[in-house]
Write a structure and sequence with these properties.
The protein is mainly α and 76 residues long. The protein has helices spanning 3-18, 23-35, 37-58, 63-72.
Length: 76
């Protein structure tokens, strides 16, 4: 794998996760992810962040945390 391949994968990573790539681009990203442990780790990290964000949107924030956050708020 060359650095250029990793840069290309970096460009394709978010669209790949969004599932908006063409079939050719998707295949290119998948080939690179299969052979590059660095980019594969980045992919796993990004996917985990997306899962965390999706989960945080549906879970109710505990009242104690809301109070702590409100206390940290500073006027603009």
């Amino acid at each position: 794998m060359s650095w250029d391949d990793c840069e290309k994968c970096e460009e394709l990573l978010q669209p790949y996760l969004d599932r908006v790539l063409s079939d050719e681009e998707r295949a290119e990203a998948e080939r690179h992810l299969e052979g590059c442990s660095y980019c594969r780790k980045r992919y796993v990290f990004e996917e985990q962040i997306r899962q965390f964000v999706r989960q945080s949107v549906v879970e109710e924030m505990p009242p104690e945390l809301k109070q702590k956050l409100a206390a940290l708020r500073t006027p603009l």
